[in-house]
Amino acid sequence: MNTIIEPFRIKSVEPIYFTTREQRSEILKKAFYNPFLIHSNDVLIDLLTDSGTSAMSSNQWAALMQGDESYAGSPSFFRFEKTVQDITGFPIVIPTHQGRAAEKILFGILGGKGKYLVSNTLFDTTRANIEFSGAEGVDLLCPEGKIPTVPAPFKGNLDTEQLRTFIREKGAENIGACILTVTNNSGGGQPVSMANVREVSTLCAHHGILLFIDACRFAENAYFIKLREEGYQDKPVPEIVRELFSYANGCTMSAKKDAFANIGGFLAMHDESLATLCRNMLIITEGFPTYGGLAGRDLEAIATGLQEVMEEHYLQYRIRSIEYLTAKLMEAGVPVMQPAGGHAVYLDARAFLSHIPVHQYPGQALVGALYEAGGIRSVEIGSLMFGKNDGSGNLIPAQMELVRLAFPRRVYTQSHVDYVAEVIIEVFAGRSQVHGLEILEEAPMLRHFTAKLQPIQP
Ligand SMILES: *Cc1c(COP(=O)(O)O)cnc(C)c1O
User: Fold this and answer.
1) pLDDT tens, residue by residue, 343-353
2) Residue 231 pLDDT more than 80?
3) What distance in Å separates the CA atoms of residue 435 and residue 423, rounded to the nearest whole number?
4) HEC sequence for 4-43
């Protein structure tokens, strides 16, 4: 049998909202061409993010009812703790209300002025928390990871040659930690190979540098290793996951990703003295160490989700559905990032709308066009998000102009994906009709969330 099916059946459904093209044009205009300002019940297929948007399983909903809401020492915490210990091998587990809370605590301790935190690519909240501590975040991604149209199996790898040079130049004592983001969210959801994790680990250990995994998509990354890396084809995913974590000193995790939860996160590690510092901070910012800003029922849902996410039928369906859409688009000549990543399809907006100059935000224009044509919500990852101002009003563009279509886990079916492909291909055929945008209003930081734009009439 060749067809890879959704490995679940549907017990509870929620409506999606149909609108006409005329209505959507009006809605888009009122939202100032910014998808974050569109109400979600005006969206038909919502691919804004895969974070916190998963469908929970019947077992997770059942686990919610088992949640024990005691302030201290809840059995829900001990179940959560044991699950994370079994999966990662880290003995110390500290719950937090989401991933960035774990980052705030950890990098508040390991960061600070004069320190460097090096990574394959830091996710934006990770970088923000590092910079907030006064430290500097440094991305050392392998060269193939920076070119969207060049396929390679592990485009999330850290460039170990550059890491060696960096350690030599800055001194190991000034490096707060090394962070491997698996998969590389900001770099197209591309995986990191086990060989790379091992090599980075050896290098860090040799210099006494701590290695942490940003583990948000650990199961997707492990499945890519199983598919693509020599020697892992016959290993069960939990074994691959355990090996991956075995090379690190600890991890940060957002349970809104590979734990199918709508909220939650954690920090896990080996070192007791570092954990004591983390727990002291946790009590100020998150709560007592056996709940860390979460309800007992959330801890139950996360514990169940963490086990479900490693099931191979699920991972096969998950990776395949992203690859399926990527392949359909490539067949139609649509410029997409290659190979397909784990959680999202990335359109290369610079090539897609080559008639729109970068300072007119082709990515954001494409986001608007997809919404208008088919009610699909996506997000620009380009110069609106990462562009800088040179001080005299000129844009310093981002490295790439991408549009991300992130898939919530277990939410949409194959016909939804077929529909998305159809809409994108139709917009591609009529791309000369899409106009560039100009900014009317913007905030000084993280402007993409609230910026107001309007089309530039030719
Ligand atoms: C989502 C994410 C985070 C932050 O997690 P939140 O739960 O959104 O705070 C950190 N790193 C990566 C790679 C992520 O994808």
Assistant:
1) 999 999 999 99
2) yes
3) 18
4) CCCCCCCCCCCCCCCCCHHHHHHHHHHCCCCHHHCCHHHC
Q: From atom 12 of ligand 1, which residue's Cα is the shortest distance away? A: 123
Q: How far is the CA of 199 from the centre of ligand 1 (A)?
A: 25
The mean per-residue pLDDT over the stretch 23-49 comes to 97
Atom of ligand 1 nearest to the CA of 185: 13
Residue ranges lining ligand 1, Cβ < 6 Å: 51, 98-100, 123, 125-126, 181, 185, 214, 216, 254, 256-257, 265
Structural domains of the chain in order of their starting residue, each with its CATH number: 21-50+312-455 (3.90.1150.10), 58-308 (3.40.640.10)
pLDDT the model gives residue 124: 85
Q: What is the DSSP string of 385-443?
A: HH-EE-SSS-EE--S--EEEEEPPTTT--HHHHHHHHHHHHHHHHTGGGPPPEEEEE--
Exposure pattern of 241-251 as b/e (b: 16+ CB <10 Å)?
bbbbbebbbbb
Taking only the tens place, the pLDDT of each residue in 108-154 is 999 999 999 999 999 988 998 999 999 999 999 999 998 888 889 99
Q: Which long-range contacts (CB under 8 A, 24 or more apart) does 422-425 make?
A: 422/374, 423/370, 423/373, 423/374, 423/376, 424/329, 424/334, 424/347, 424/370, 425/328, 425/329, 425/332, 425/334
Do 361 and 436 meet the contact criterion of CB atoms below 8 Å apart? yes
Ligand 1 pocket test, pick from 141, 256, 379 with the greatest ligand atom count within 8 Å of Cβ, gives 256
CA of 356 to the centre of ligand 1 (A): 31
Say which DSSP state 338 is in: S
Identify the residue whose C-alpha is closest to ligand 1 atom 4: 99
Q: pLDDT at residue 405 above 80?
A: yes
Asked if 133 and 304 count as a contact pair (C-beta separation under 8 A), the reply is: no
Across the chain, mean pLDDT equals 96
Among 189-193, 244-248, 349-353, 386-390, the least confident range: 386-390
- Structure confidence by residue, pLDDT tens digits, 218-230: 999 999 999 999 9
How far apart (Å, rounded) are the C-alpha atoms in residues 195 and 199? 6
